[in-house]
Design a protein that fits this description.
single chain
Length: about 190
């Protein structure tokens, strides 16, 4: 899928890509080694997506929506739950019994989060922001994803300014580790 456009289009495209990876995992039999490859790819995308949302989307939610602080806090809490599941999943192989349990929990958590964002948050944001503001946020989110971490860091800060300062360094280290290990690559 192509990326671009406003923040809502960008993040919705991310949602579809992750759902496609979840579908690939579900289509394979338990224990198949490609389930781990797709899980790693999903984790990479989810972490980059979450970091970008925490850097730019949620501050905009706080600023533009009437109940923005409560909404952003709930979304960040959802991210924290998913990030801990991904961290636990990182240590599992596809054949581990724990892999299927954690993968199921992650899919449930992410699908619920996506439904909430697309059904409630995005329409509210579209109504509250100008098209130019949404376009600008889309550009910022795309830029943030380029330097964002690719591995879960549950103890890292999730709110500005600390997250904006630390994420690029963690992202660089993560991408080096991924390149050296081949993580997230399908043979």
């Amino acid at each position: 899928m192509g990326h671009g456009g406003n923040v809502i289009d960008e993040l919705t495209t991310d949602h579809r890509e992750v759902e496609e990876l979840f579908g690939r995992i579900e289509a394979l039999p338990p224990g198949h080694q490609d389930r781990k490859v797709y899980a790693d790819q999903a984790t990479i995308e989810l972490v980059r997506h979450s970091v970008a949302e925490e850097q730019y989307l949620y501050p905009a939610v706080r600023e533009h929506l009437a109940d923005g602080d409560a909404i952003a806090d709930r979304e960040i809490e959802d991210h924290s739950k998913a990030e801990q599941i991904m961290k636990d999943l990182e240590g599992c192989e596809a054949g581990d019994a724990e892999f299927d349990r954690l993968m199921g929990r992650l899919m449930t958590e992410i699908r619920s989060h996506v439904a909430d964002e697309e059904g409630s948050l995005f329409p509210q944001l579209r109504a509250a922001c100008t098209p130019e503001a949404l376009d600008s946020l889309g550009d910022k989110v795309r830029q943030a994803k380029k330097t964002a971490p690719t591995r879960p860091h549950p103890s890292a800060p999730d709110q500005p300014p600390a997250n904006k300062l630390l994420a690029p360094g963690a992202g660089m280290v993560d991408r080096m580790r991924d390149a050296l290990s081949g993580r997230g690559k399908h043979d």
